[in-house]
Write the structure tokens for this entry.
Amino acid sequence: MSPEAVIPTLPALAHPLLDAPHPYNTEEFDQYVMTTYARYPLTIARGQGCRLWDTDGREYLDFVAGIATCTLGHAHPAMVEAVSKQIQTLHHVSNLYYVPAQGELAKWLVEHSCADRAFFCNSGAEANEGAIKLARKYAHTVRHIEDPVILTAHASFHGRTLATITATGQPKYQKGFTPLMPGFYYVTYNDIQTIENAIAELDAETPRVAAIMLEALQGEGGVNPGQVEYFQRIRQICDEKNILLICDEVQVGMGRSGKMWGYENLGIEPDIFTSAKGLGGGIPIGALLCKSSCDVFQPGDHASTYGGNPFACAVALTVCQTIERDHLLENVQARGEQLRAGLRAIAEKYPEHISQVRGWGLINGLVLKDESALTAPEIVKATMAAGLLLVPAGPKVLRFVPPLIVSAAEIDAAVHSVEQAFANL
Ligand SMILES: *Cc1c(COP(=O)(O)O)cnc(C)c1O
């Protein structure tokens, strides 16, 4: 059978559900699944493009995209084809052998970034763990630092493993999980003075600062873009002191900012950066990328059973190639401007509630005033009722991260739903 033969043809949008509406037993779900999430009372049955349908057949515009993950939306023909082809050819072999799809994906990422080499894993947290290990090994072997420290920012988010919750400068993710990992120190994002003070203090007797790890735009911490002068000064400091600059590109990377990588908005190049979320378009994959000058990993230093398997890599490569082939970065820039203009018009109507609209490309935040009684989770519920899915970034920021294929009409529809939600609150 040719691979094409199994690619499903999608039913027309007017008839989104193959079956009749079928309510889902959420009580049974809650009985068997650990309650690590406070879930909305919503069960999604199907998706196509930027649209989702729940089990009652209600349609939603998806401006969550699996939290900045479904780069090409849902059931994109290129992904359907890549998944079908690869599962029929070869889906998994060990990294004990050469995996051509992994090599091709690494080559694409290197040719479209400042990095020279890649390592593949399965998630953002795991990519950041790899970055932390690489930075520590560099500190030990190249700089002969015995007790290395990595600077990270307050309000950052780097993942949920022990090392990455420690790197994450938000106590709410750390509560109940002490002892945390040694070797981290927090600075204030977009405040160069706190970095200079930290280095002066930590390096007072002998050099200890091994790396500075930051998001180019803080995603979970409130959709807060990095400042150009701040990052350029950090780059200078890192060059002077041989400190590694690590950019966590898990949320802002892969075209979401309107450029391929978030750091391109800041006019700097990191020594190491990490990717996940948008990289696989919803198929789990993570990547650690670095300049050859800091690639100190040797056989046995780091590994992952699933990392870089043929299935994940073939799909991620398709996501990358589709971004390029369909000129999606241009769409991200244009749709982002359109969205921010629409949201700013709403902000002008409700100055008592909204303080600011901020972001890059298709990662944007509508920021509520501290003194407003409204909260982001409350507005998410209201827009959900109006048929628009959004996700908060903290208690006071409404986050907009649609698929990169979103159309002008879909942006207008989303803005209209937000307007409706505010009018009814
Ligand atoms: C989501 C996220 C992570 C963690 O990724 P997982 O795949 O959930 O482990 C790390 N860093 C940033 C910036 C993120 O947004």
